[in-house]
Input
Amino acid sequence: MNASSDLAIIGAGPAGLAAALAAAKAGVSVVLIDSAPRPGGQYFKQLPASFSGSDSLTHQGEVRQITEALAHHNVTLLMDTVVWDCHQDESDWLLYLFGTTAPKRLRARSIVAAPGAYDRPVAFPGWTLPGVFTTGAVQNLIKSQRVLPGKDIVVSGTGPLTLAVAANLVKAGANVRALLEASPIVKPKTLSSLTAMWAQWARLREGLDYVSTLLSARVPVRIGWAAVEARGRQEVEEVVIAPLGDDWRPDKTRQQVMAADTLVVGYGFTPNTDITRLLGCRHARRHARGEHIPWRDRDMQTSVPGVFAAGDGAGHRGLGAGPT
Amino acid sequence: MRIKNETTRLPRIARGRSLTVLVNGKPVTAYEGETVAAVLLVEGFRAFRHMPASAEPRGLYCGMGICYECLVTVDGMPNVRACVTSLRDGMTIEAGAQP
Ligand code: FES
Output
């Protein structure tokens, strides 16, 4: 079975969903593709469809609103579907799909790439040891799979997501041994520095809720510290932590060893450029962040005519960027 | 390799219907909607596999299909990402073996 549409959108996270709705309202036929079983992406990560119950952790309501709106328009959702190749065919694009319900090929006039972002991996001794997880992995386990990743947990990194993960772990009953914020300037107890340092984070009320969860659970918070090593034979047994200098180099003379079975690491996100590279888009390097993003004109069109890029995968930051 | 069991299913959620999967030949009860990674963690697996040459243990890392650290064998098919593979009744999962 082959199919065709005016527009193929790759990625059904906040940006892809918003793009689908905007395009459909303009009368464009849309096929929205995502490798996950449910729309929402990582930020709006949903419970599995077979799970039910009150759900304060995910944003079920927000996704339901958008998908219900989409149902009134000419939008086909292809979930559990991977785009494994695409190329130009005269003035169209041919996308090659793999998925249980998907057609093998999709012909589209234009493409919106909304692939999102993933945790920027940071290497240190022991970072490949089982029990070292990214913040994204732990958010998925707690929010969607509803499984606790471990018992005695150290959370290390920088930015608001480590705070969210630590608070969610506390609420789920884990023993968070420490929350380490690598940036020496952030002082999570003062509201003004929260707004200044983490300005990209619009959801300040959630942030205050996380802070109060950590305070009432008496989770030790260390500013200017980071996990510098994970130790263990087959999995994490100990985490070595150390204070960082101004250049973020650890001061090993003051390092400490904590017993823990789990280390959660989060140093922000890096755009996923797999699909825009596959599509042949030109990318620019952002030196300060050490990442590549697709070049775009004012209409979010990439260097390849008919291919647009939106959301975190195009270098935006955080929720709220997508819907623009 | 099964080391210890600190991973637990969280309460206050109704999971999907129960199903049985075989983890290294052992029947294990799990729930529709769970991933292979989730059931392995609940069963006490941290090392999902070992590197062929160095025998280093590897397990779940990114949890979203990006890093390919979580590879296991599912229904005889090697190199399947445990974190993005949903369980099916009767599925066989091979994980954690030393090379
Ligand atoms: S944990 Fe990264 S692909 Fe599965």
The pocket of FE2/S2 (inorganic) cluster is lined by residues B 60-63, 65-70, 81, 83 (CB under 6 Å). The CA atoms of residues 3 and 15 of chain B lie 26 Å apart. Residues 18-94 of chain B form a domain with the Ubiquitin-like (UB roll) fold (CATH 3.10.20.30). The first strand of chain B starts at residue 18 and ends at 23.
